Amino acid sequence: MRIRTLTIRLIASSPIKWFRWSVAVASIFNLMVLLPLWFRIPSVIEIVQPFPGSGIWYSITHILYNEPISTHYVFLLIYLLAAICLFYSKWRLISASLLVIIGHNLVTQTYPLLNMSQYLLLALTTYLLFMDEKANERKGALGVISRGLTNTFYIICWAQVLAAYIFPFIYKVQGEMWLNGTALGTILSIPEFSRNFILSFARPDHWLFMLLTWATLLYQAAFPILIWTKKAKPYLLVVGVMFNLGIAIAMGLVDIAVVMIAAYAILLDEATINKLKSWVPVFNK
């Protein structure tokens, strides 16, 4: 009885619904990122070697190897349809399963050209498989199991988002460039990691980039701590959205920004949503 009461108290259906929607949007955007790769897939396949492995899961996630390009496009179409169906709660299990399986196949075909966003999205979609926003309506043993799984992966999602701030912060403070403020100016002065309008004035000792470097460190240190406070959470999420949009604009890493912003949905609650709505004039009429 204690376990059942605990799971009912912990579970929150609204964040899971918003998280499901955000994963659906991020998956559609992810397809837009991956699609151009398939216009040159023959050249990509030449440099991609399959991961070593065996077993059922390996076979399921490596279906596309040695398959004609027409099969690839079928997988892309199914991926799009699954992402659209994910907006509907009754299709969550089937849609998320297809997104995970097909997503793994797409990643294994193009992994030398990808960044962390595809892997993070795969992880979030996998967690969503076990998160039932209607778990409180389930009865008996099925309800207890459903609530237990939902709560477990709800917490794992929180941990995943927090880890995206904790570990980069730990890594950054071990070097000198982030501590002395020259990191962002150095990175954004490299053409491969910057945009033309920023290259014209980006340099390690520029006061603006030094301030942004220290602000990034401060935010990454504060986020895992202050996100637990109701008053600070709305401000942290807004700053987080701006932070990721800045990454998208300055460095062109739009896919990373979209997936990170989508992950914020699991951190939402009714109080935070109401606070955010109060800042938007259209919701106050």
Features:
mainly alpha; 69% helix; single chain; globular; 14 helices; disordered N terminus; 285 residues
Walkthrough of the structure:
The protein has helices at 2-10, 13-38, 41-47, 56-60, 69-85, 92-110, 116-129, 140-172, 183-187, 196-199, 207-226, 233-251, 254-263, 270-278. The protein has 285 residues and is mainly α. It has one domain (2-172, 227-284). Helix 2 packs antiparallel against helix 5 (69-85) and helix 2 (13-38) runs antiparallel to helix 13 (254-263). Residues 1-11 have low confidence and may be disordered.
Question: What is this entry, summarized?
Answer:
This protein is 69% helix and 0% strand. It has 285 residues and is mostly helical. The protein starts with a helix and ends in a 7-residue tail after the last helix.
Number of strands: 0
Rg from Cα: 21 Å
Quaternary state of the chains: single chain
Any idea how many domains?
Answer: 1
What's the tally of helices?
14
Taken in chain order, the helices and strands follow as HHHHHHHHHHHHHH
Task: Give me the secondary-structure category.
Answer: mainly alpha
Assess the beta-strand content as a share of residues. Answer: under 5%
Distance between the termini: 45 Å
Rounded average pLDDT: 85
Helicity range: 55-70%
Main sheet specs? none
Molecular shape: globular
